């Protein structure tokens, strides 16, 4: 179900612009507006879930489809040297947009996974 005040539901609905990379019946991928690596793409389910935990519990098949889409995009973006897939989930992760999104980061050596 689309949430009226959700940024990414608005992108799915075509009410906000995005640089789309790939689309399926269930997923949408678009470039991050503030890239943290040479390639930084977000893969989202079109259905609204707040975070990865909620999506995994509610719809494991959809979760798999989001992951599969990310792997296909990593291939088409020629990230053969490697890439990082990341779901920020909840407050301590720094999650800012509460429509689940899988980050694909790559295009250079990414360095340590977290700073402490
Ligand atoms: P997170 O911290 O995991 O919630 O990440 C949210 C991501 O969404 C950030 O990397 C933002 O740069 C990105 N973002 C926010 N608004 C937009 C937008 N309109 N189009 C594309 N990416 C966005
Ligand atoms: Zn949403």
Brief summary:
26% of the residues lie in helices and 22% in strands. By secondary structure, the protein is an alpha+beta fold. The longest helix is centred in the middle third of the chain and has 17 residues, at 60-76.
Report on this structure.
This protein is α+β, with helices and mostly antiparallel strands. Helices cover 26% and strands 22% of the residues. The protein has a 5-stranded antiparallel β-sheet with strand order 1-2-3-5-4, with helices on one face. A hairpin with a 3-residue loop joins strand 1 and strand 2 (27-31). It is globular and about 40 Å long. Residues 7, 18, 30, 32-34, 42, 88, 94-97 line the site of adenosine monophosphate (AMP).
Task: Tag the structure with descriptive keywords.
globular; 116 residues; single chain; binds zinc ion; binds adenosine monophosphate; five-stranded antiparallel β-sheet; alpha+beta
Overall residue-averaged pLDDT value: 96
Q: Quickly count the helices.
A: 3
What spatial form do the alpha-carbon principal axes imply?
globular
Structural class: alpha+beta
State the separation between the terminal residues, measured CA to CA.
37 Å
Share of helix, binned: 25-40%
Q: Tell me the strand order in the biggest sheet.
A: 1-2-3-5-4
Low-confidence stretches: none
The Cα radius of gyration reads: 14 Å
Sketch the major β-sheet. Answer: 5 strands, antiparallel
For the secondary structure, the number of strands is 5
């Amino acid at each position: 179900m689309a949430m009226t005040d959700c940024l990414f539901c608005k992108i799915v609905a075509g009410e906000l612009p995005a640089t789309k990379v790939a689309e399926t019946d269930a997923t949408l991928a678009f470039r991050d507006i503030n890239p943290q690596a040479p390639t930084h793409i977000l893969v989202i389910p079109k259905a609204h879930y707040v975070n990865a935990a909620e999506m995994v519990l509610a719809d494991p098949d959809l979760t798999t489809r989001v992951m599969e889409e990310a792997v296909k995009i990593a291939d088409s973006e020629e990230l053969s040297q490697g890439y990082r897939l990341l779901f920020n989930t909840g407050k301590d992760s720094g999650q800012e947009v509460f429509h689940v999104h899988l980050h694909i980061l790559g295009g250079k050596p990414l360095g340590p996974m977290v700073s402490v």
